[in-house]
């Protein structure tokens, strides 16, 4: 606007200057008048030059300002695009479960008269963070919060001697890293991952979200033999070719100091301490045809590793304590039909030597039931029908059987049957929306010991899962 005013003033002055020239021509016959006219014209010309100079400076400043504005706008756009690009590489997922259980339980392993107890449990809340650095490089961190928090817990352990209360800091049990891995996958057929990775033994390591299993809680049979959602530090390769999926890993091994009668090698997972002993490593491998997470599949897995080298009291034993586990699993998910099953078989060498060492290690308190199985087995079968294929109700009904025997065989003596359990149940899964499931389950627990009566249980649960 100021430039337009300047131009208008300049035009007026030019017109006046031309008029002055005409007048000067008319007065050219008078020398005095001519001299005065020339002086006026020179003054007007000087003023005209000054205004032209100012106008040129203003135009130049406007051009600089416009260029600066365009540059800042371009930088801002680039920053927005960069932030959006980074955000698109970030992923976040979460799932969780809360349960109510009403079951009959035994005060300790010597009791034969059960009592009923009702319990509530914020079972777990899990957060998963991922970032895709490049097309080939990515990372994922999974953090699990169990039972509502962290801190010092007072627990009752009926499977320890005659039943006792234990006060302990729940390090590794209440808030834990379930996964922290870096992945390099240049192609679909081959990838490598390292860090804290899931061990591909047992279906729970793959199907651990509440919409991926039918029971209210994860399968008891697997938890009575191997670590739940088993994770170890190590390195592994993986990939898929056609419909085949494979994994092979070298990972940290188990610690036989914490093997127990009632859950075989499950408690040997090294999650209690800041540092994981790695004197004994292990191998884990898996081959699947199909995809268990998406539907139908069959698969076989194998684990092998020594355990005595990872004991903290390494001078208590001089044997290997080798654990080997074979897992065979299958799933058929087609239309309304859901059918899954798994069989686990494991062996433990030197089980008597480990039993004796654990009995005499101060602080472990294995009690009267320190006996370890040289062989262990477990299986489950779950079958369901999705009624939403026949009605408008998003409801799945199911039946399930779990079986575990951590003392299938022992090296010497006779194995107790106190820990040979069978759980049978029926229940429903209701999905008000796809991301939420409400579950109910009722069943019967049977112990192989004839003098111990069968007990019944009932459970309610709610779970969620979502991803961004």
Automatic annotation (TrEMBL):
The region annotated as signal peptide is 1-27
Q: Which UniProt keywords apply?
A: Coiled coil, Signal
**Cross-referenced InterPro entries, in alphabetical order?**
Porin_dom_sf
Q: Which residues form a coiled coil?
A: 31-65
Q: Which domain of life is it from?
A: Bacteria
Protein name stated in the entry: Phosphate-selective porin O and P
